[in-house]
Amino acid sequence: DAGVTQSPTHLIKTRGQQVTLRCSPKSGHDTVSWYQQALGQGPQFIFQYYEEEERQRGNFPDRFSGHQFPNYSSELNVNALLLGDSALYLCASSFLRGPTYEQYFGPGTRLTVT
Amino acid sequence: AQSVSQHNHHVILSEAASLELGCNYSYGGTVNLFWYVQYPGQHLQLLLKYFSGDPLVKGIKGFEAEFIKSKFSFNLRKPSVQWSDTAEYFCAVNKGSQGNLIFGKGTKLSVKP
Q1: Measured between CB atoms, does B101 come within 8 Å of chain A?
Q2: I need a surface site. Which of A14, A46, A109, B46 has the fewest CB within 10 A?
Q3: Does B46 touch chain A (CB under 8 A)?
């Protein structure tokens, strides 16, 4: 049973560019959440997708957008990259109507903005 | 605003020492509580969780945590740590049916052999 997978593993971009990160959820899960983990900090919630729609959003600017596909996989897009966007981006999947609300995390994508 | 506080940034212990990592949250309603662990070079893994019932919950690898509602706390404990417990530990909270997890800043645990 494959867990949550993310691609790419590492990415280096220049300030002002755009980036797309990808996530495939754990088998049987229908909900994908994205988190940003800056160095030395805990993960911060960006947004969550369910049934191909954004269900919740954290305190992140509109430069951060996402998408969920019919197969439940998801993309995170960041436009007009800033140096401060450098972080580990984590994807977590879950089953929204399950008896316990657990999120399973992927290995993350390390984004460096220069 | 809701927040999760982890009292210790870095804890250094010798093998066989007992461990207690503090976690306090600010939200007053119904919450679900979690401890996640991140071993060096690995992804976040769920260590244990509390949803309801017995406030003393047991997780993997001998860890346990106690939910004390009156103190808004969910401290993590282990009677005897091993070198392999060296990792970063994160406490997290979510509210009822809401999906987003609110994490603390994490506590780095270093266990000396």
Answers
A1: yes
A2: A14
A3: yes
How far is the CA of B86 from the CAs of A57, B21, B97, B107, in angstroms?
33, 13, 33, 11
CA separation for the pair B47, A114 (Å, rounded): 35
Task: Give the Cα separation of B106 and A42 in Å (integer).
Answer: 6
- Phi and psi at A3, nearest 5°, equal -85, -160
Residue B92, both tokens: 């997290």
Asked if B90 is an interface residue toward chain A (Cβ–Cβ < 8 A), one would say yes
Rounded to the nearest angstrom, the minimum Cα separation between B61 and chain A is 18
| Model confidence at A100: pLDDT above 70 | no
Average pLDDT over residues B48-68: 94
Report d(CA A106, CA B44) in Å as an integer. Answer: 7
Q: What percent of chain B has pLDDT over 90?
A: 77
Which amino acid, one-letter code, is at B64?
A: E
